[in-house]
Design goal:
The complex is a heterodimer of chains A (about 170) and B (about 550).
Chain A (H helix, E strand, L loop, with lengths): L3 E4 L2 E4 L3 E2 H4 L12 E5 H6 L1 H6 L3 E6 L17 E6 L6 H12 L5 E6 L3 H9 L4 E2 L6 H7 L23
Chain B lengths: L5 H22 L5 H8 L4 E3 L4 E5 L5 E3 H14 L3 E4 L5 E3 L7 H10 L16 E2 L14 H11 L14 E4 L13 E7 L5 E7 L11 E8 L3 H15 L10 H8 L1 H15 L8 H8 L21 H10 E3 L5 E6 L10 E3 H14 L3 E4 L5 E7 L3 H10 L14 E2 L14 H10 L3 H7 L4 E4 L13 E8 L2 E8 L11 E2 L4 E2 L3 H15 L6 H8 L2 H9 L5
Helix pairs in contact in B: 1-2, 1-4, 3-11, 6-8, 7-8, 13-15, 15-17
Classes of the chains: A alpha/beta (about 170), B alpha+beta (about 550).
């Protein structure tokens, strides 16, 4: 079953596939996705090959992958996915802010891996706007964007629906 | 002190509801142990040896009388009638029930308190000098800056999942009473050549398994850049700190492996990008926060001699348990939580209530927690110290031992903590029994004894003049002794004197160390000075000569 996704506060069918899912995709050539998310190392290795294709491209960063190495390529990318391997991982929050604020990335910024309703508020405050949640977490995740209605510090907030109250 | 406005109240109330929901889901089986662990640890809740432990934040150690009363009531309603003050100016409850924790948090919120970020790999409660605002040697009151840091770091979305915990201490006086050199970041208020006040920023200090003294990252930071500079340090650490091994994940390991030069270069490069962002503090915000820390309504008074004509017990207490105040006629008064036989740092509900009454009568309704696990009335009229002493003595809170051997810092140890290798509270008891002669204690003078039940060093043993570390030796509790450590401006790590000793020999070992000091000290030397002058050898020889450790 194709994945569902919370994107900009709507539950949608995911039209993207991670590279390792492409081979397993049984939808056949006529419906094969034209949108592929490449791991960062594959992107570095085969950059010219992928750019010359006609599909839309996304790149997935693992926590240690340096955001700045993607800087020159961001105009060609429709999506950047940030992988969270587990509940303790925190580098993706900084990667997200750097992509939005330092690199000016305006495309889809997606959290993948361990993504739960208890993380989405801070993720959204760092600029992440799409969430690969487990089935069953969609309704509660939408409420999680309103976990807090005020803020103590400026961040990015691109993923929130409503601005937070501040002094 | 700082008072909540609508923004603070909203955030704390929403946190209570968030945690209530998380606890409900855990109890309903919707969250695994591991998932809930990551959530509860961001709210000061540990599942310990006997019961959960809840750590309540006391920002930079400042408490109102109303807060004291609620802490007392919580201890009775949900715990066993006492709380434990920690070296980071917080309060721990050792016996709450998990199901009750959301209600405890709701009670705390009624007096503008919480347990946010008191544990877990995030920015912890910011600590400061317990004499802030009243000490004569201060450049500026550090508490407004602590509050500014508290607000910036609370629910900071980018730094909620750091490689490891992160502790910040701020001081405003040349003498460091906040152990800032053994914090992840130390912020010192300093004056530059032009006479402007700003900050010296240190990073990479810490205790634990690998004790390291912090190093200067920037010698002068203009005040408006405080938050952008901290954000730059945290950002470098969040991306580059090690996450593969928790014992190598503190910022001190990153600073050490990069070297301070390279670490500074990375921080400054990041800071250059954000220094003029929204993080830049404007004067209006600094003034807004400062307005909460204006001096109380002091009366114009003259200095007097409260001791003359009073009994010697009062004179001893006055000498050891009070401290100079910047204004004539006032005195800062310590409340000793180190009565022999009581776990260091513990206070009962009755004592907390009594302290609430007393601080209302004698010290503008505020009380402070010190990093040495005592309490402080900051603003007592000298003429009232005798009355206050009598009242404190009735409540068992006037043990005249501040700064002496029996004013030990001590972690909860094996009795409560699931990490500990060895007990610390009963060792404190043994030491107290051995050294109960106050004339001898006073003759020994200033002496910091610090004890931790394991390598995590919650009792700061590395920076004790005498440090005691509990180690597990084939299932038995043994203790490694260090000497020559110091926590203040001249922070130094102690040196291990030799093989560890069994529990029954700890007090005898200390007695032998002190005997060497008494024989060899020069006129005004403290124990620490004698150790620095003589080195380890004479102490080592005495301790192991006739085998105290047998």
């Amino acid at each position: 079953m194709p994945r569902r996704l919370l994107r900009d506060h709507l539950v949608v069918q995911d039209e993207w596939l991670h590279l390792d899912e492409v081979a397993a995709d049984r939808r056949g050539p006529e419906t094969a996705p034209s949108r592929v998310i490449l791991p960062f190392d594959r992107w570095l290795a085969d950059r010219e090959h992928w750019i010359s294709g006609d599909g839309s491209l996304g790149v997935r960063l693992d926590p240690p992958d340096p955001v700045e190495k993607l800087l020159g390529d961001l105009p060609r990318l429709a999506l950047v996915a940030l992988r969270f391997p587990g509940p303790a991982e925190g580098r993706g929050y900084t990667q997200a802010r750097l992509l939005r604020e330092r690199c000016g990335f305006a495309g889809e910024l997606r959290a993948t891996g361990y993504v739960r309703r208890d993380q989405v508020f801070f993720m959204a405050r760092c600029g992440i706007n799409a969430f690969e949640l487990p089935e069953g977490e969609f309704a509660s995740a939408e409420q999680a964007f309103e976990t807090f209605t005020a803020e103590y510090q400026r961040a990015n907030d691109a993923g929130l629906a409503q601005p937070l109250r501040r002094r | 002190m700082y008072r909540y406005d609508a923004i603070d109240k909203t955030l704390v109330a929403e946190r209570v509801e968030q945690f209530r929901d998380q606890t409900r889901r855990f109890l309903a089986g919707e969250l695994s142990d591991d998932e809930f662990r990551h959530l509860r640890l961001r709210n000061g809740l540990y599942l310990q040896r006997h019961a959960p432990m809840l750590r309540v934040a006391i920002p930079y150690g400042l408490l109102s009388s109303a807060q004291l009363r609620v802490l007392a009531t919580i201890a009775e309603r949900y715990d066993r009638g006492y709380g434990h003050f920690t070296t980071r100016q917080n309060l721990q409850y050792n016996w709450p029930r998990l199901e009750d924790v959301p209600d405890i948090l709701a009670d705390l919120a009624t007096v503008e308190m919480h347990a946010i970020q008191t544990s877990g790999n995030c920015i912890r409660n910011v600590t400061s000098d317990h004499l802030a605002g009243v000490t004569p040697d201060e450049l500026e009151d550090p508490r407004p800056w602590c509050e500014i840091i508290r607000q910036w770091s609370t629910f900071h979305p980018e730094f909620a999942y750091l490689p490891r915990k992160f502790k910040i201490a701020v001081t405003g006086a040349p003498q460091d009473r906040a152990a800032s050199l053994v914090h992840d970041v130390g912020v010192h208020i300093v004056k530059n050549a032009a006479g402007d006040l700003g900050f010296e920023i240190l990073a990479g200090g810490g205790l634990g398994r690998t004790p390291i003294i912090g190093q200067v990252v920037r010698d002068f930071l203009p005040r408006e850049h405080l938050l952008s500079y901290l954000e730059a340090i945290l950002r470098v650490y969040n991306l580059e700190g090690r996450r593969d091994n928790p014992t190598k994940a503190r910022i001190k390991i990153l600073v050490r492996s990069l070297g301070i030069e390279e670490f500074r270069r990375r921080v400054e490069a990041e800071w250059a990008q954000i220094r003029d962002s929204a993080l830049r503090l404007d004067e209006a915000e600094i003034e807004r926060v400062r307005s909460y820390f204006r001096p109380p309504a002091y009366r114009p008074l003259e200095d007097l001699d409260p001791v003359s004509g009073r009994e010697p017990a009062f004179a001893a207490w006055y000498k050891y348990n009070t401290h100079a105040h910047k204004l004539p006629g006032y005195r800062a008064v310590f409340v000793s939580l180190k009565k022999p036989g009581i776990a260091p740092g513990d206070a009962t509900s009755a004592q907390l209530r009594r302290l609430a009454d007393l601080c209302e009568r004698y010290s503008f309704a505020e009380l402070r927690v010190t990093h040495t696990q005592n309490l402080l009335f900051a603003d007592v009229e000298q003429s009232a110290t005798y009355e206050l002493w009598r009242a404190l003595a009735e409540a068992d809170l006037a043990t005249p031992n501040i700064g002496t051997l029996t004013d030990m810092i001590c972690c909860p140890g094996l009795d409560f903590c699931s990490l500990a290798n060895a007990g610390s509270i009963d060792v404190a008891r043994l030491i107290n029994e051995r050294f109960e002669d106050y004339d001898y204690l006073y003759d020994l003078g200033e002496l910091d004894v610090k004890m931790s039940g394991c390598m995590n060093a919650c009792g700061h043993h590395h920076v004790g003049h005498i440090g005691i570390l509990g180690v597990d030796k084939g299932g038995e509790e043994w203790y490694q002794i260090t000497i020559g450590g110091a926590a203040g401006t001249d922070a130094t790590l102690g040196s291990v004197i030799g093989p560890s000793v069994p529990k029954h020999a700890v007090a005898e070992t200390i007695a032998r160390l002190l005997a060497v000091y008494v024989e060899r000290r020069t006129a005004d030397e403290r124990f620490l000075d004698t150790v620095r002058r003589l080195g380890l050898q004479p102490f080592k020889e005495r301790v192991y000569a006739a085998s105290a450790a047998a």
